[in-house]
Design goal:
Strand content: 5-15%
CATH superfamily of the largest domain: P-loop containing nucleotide triphosphate hydrolases
Strand order of the largest sheet: 6-7-5-8-9-4-10
Radius of gyration: 29 Å
CATH architecture of the largest domain: 3-Layer(aba) Sandwich
Number of domains: 4
CATH topology of the largest domain: Rossmann fold
Shape: globular
Amino acid sequence: MNDNNTQYYAKSKREDGTQELLRNHLAKVSEMAGVFGEQIGSRKTAELCGKLHDFGKYSERFKGVLERKYTRIDHAICGAAFLYCLLGNRKSLYGYRAAMEAINGHHDGLTGYDELEMDLKESLLSGKPVERNSKTAALAGQKQYQEASKAFLKDFPQFLSEYRSIEKVRKLEGIDEAIDEMLYTRMLFSCLVDADYTISSEKELQKPLEFEAEQCLKALDKYREELKKNVKGSLIVNDLRDLLFERCGEAARLKEGLFILTAPTGTGKTLALLNFALKHAAQYKKKRIILVLPFLALTEQSYDVYSKIIPEILQDHSQSELDDRQREFAERWEPPFIITTSVKFFQALFAQKPTDCRKLHNIANSIILFDEAQSLPANLLTATLNAVNTLCTRYHCTMVFSTATQPEFKAIQGVSWKPIEIVPEYPIMYEKLKRTQVEWRMKKRIPLEEIAREMEEEENVCVIVNLRRHAVELFEILKSDGCSREELFFLTTDLCPKHRSEVIRKIKERQEAGLPCKVVSTQCIEAGVDLDFCVLYRALAPLEAIIQAAGRCNRNGKSGVGKVVVFEPEVEGSLYPPDKWYQNAAIVVKEILSRENIEINDPECISNYYEILFREYAKDKETLTKAIEDRDYKETAREYKLIDNQGKKVIVPFGEKMQLYNDVRKELLNGNLTPELVKRSAEITVNTFEKDIEKYCEQVYYFDRKRKQKMESGYYVLRTQYGYMYREDMGLQFKEKENEKCEDNGLIFG
């Protein structure tokens, strides 16, 4: 039995022999969680979570943990159970349910209240401690809870008068109730977890630079002035870029909320969006700007531009190299300007684990710029858009969905979609910027040999196909027909990122020099790659992909009207990737063309296409919908994935990075897989779906913390005897050497 003189500690002894009292830890976490909670309108609720999160440490079992007598003791459930005991008929109030979910989950992740309630009751009433996740609850039964509460209330005598005063969570119009409730819990959870981790680390929080929006606006104007001195576009293109920039600046005065920016490719959306964001931030005192992009290539390009204007930018994505200071910022998202990916941003809104949710409260009162809005997966749209509505309505975010092919999200059932268009006269921009004419060759399928013959007659031409094997076939045809290695290029994800960057650089050099240039590519060229072709061939695809591809043709408006040819290839097997949505979208294009022409420069045609597509095919995964309806956090996080199958990752011996390959290979095969090593090797990593991968590659394993259990990592290293399979001209091609014409295949290893 505990007496009044018992001391309770939060952690084990420090190296200097001192030990933090539990009451001090709870007080500090509560205070900091409250500061964070202010950002989401729930200061008192966050303080409550901070005060109760380690309630279970007022126990003999946790004292045993500190004395190293016990392991696997769960103290988190106890704070939630104590709150449950106090509430009586207030249990149904959502703010308290959210607090119980956050307190209970602060170590192992969120569990929904409906699933949790039975464990809370059992913990309070049963003399046998609750067993969950291979852990034993620190407290069990009325007697132990009474003793713990006496110790807690001795430390916090005002608590019983304080806990009843938390903020009421009011229902809001136009947002989905389940999404709203779960996101509120995650926001509260974020406040608690961030405060707990920060206080526990005993490190002083590093402060990012202050957000000086006015200074950044001056730097933006200066940057544009320099840009105009070396302008590449035609007079019309440049005038439209100025118009878009001005309209975005004017729209920044509008109240916070949901916006869309619809503008043709090549009209300078990158700088126009920044103009909107900086002026809006200055007017409405927004805390930060978060730029969300679907592709890593876009993050690199945007950083190259914005880093010349913004003094401090956090890049948070899978390939960003972070020092200790930046790593802390990436966990917390506190800097004033962040560039991240769709995967990082949207999956965090549906996450369950503490580390994934820690940054969420810092999204509140931010400006979020989402470029290439059409890239969102169709089977996640309802959940995603409802979460966006919640961010704007409850958490005072301003979000802009920007694209040249604005989806008609209002056609999706179960979504209230009422954005403000930043440039209402955007149809005029499309009409003035008509840089291409599309030739739809839909009457019959066309052999790749015929496309190759036509390409041979052109000086500056690109073909984009849907599958890598089609690209390989076309490239081989062109090569065998006598196209020189200097003028022929191959761009697919068979090339590692560093290799692709080098190929794009060489293409640009030839284009600027007016030299012949023939490119065979997959969709990897369609977004964020600033290349400009006179003629472009595109295999039939979703309309947004065709329009993106057309954006690489006559991009700067200097070739009169560029020629875009859309065709169906005559090939064996599938015409499309396994993604069913991609195929359905291409079929919708074909169906519309059977009745009428599609003018890709007419926004009405784009709108009509999306309405048909969304009406017929847009529906969230049933498993995701059910998980959200059930308030099942773990299942929701599992089902909400922007990329379902990422294939296997192979680290390859690209010629310019052989030293890196050798260094990384040695470390990986010794079992030293670390996040830092993964990031270092990202530029020489290729994704593949090769079935016989273990024949050609060595599998990389990683170990658990105690280095006892070996586990598959999903990473592989190309075996040295198959180094020749990574080619200078075509990247990673799993072909046996005896089947190659080695004297003329562009090998860099052999």
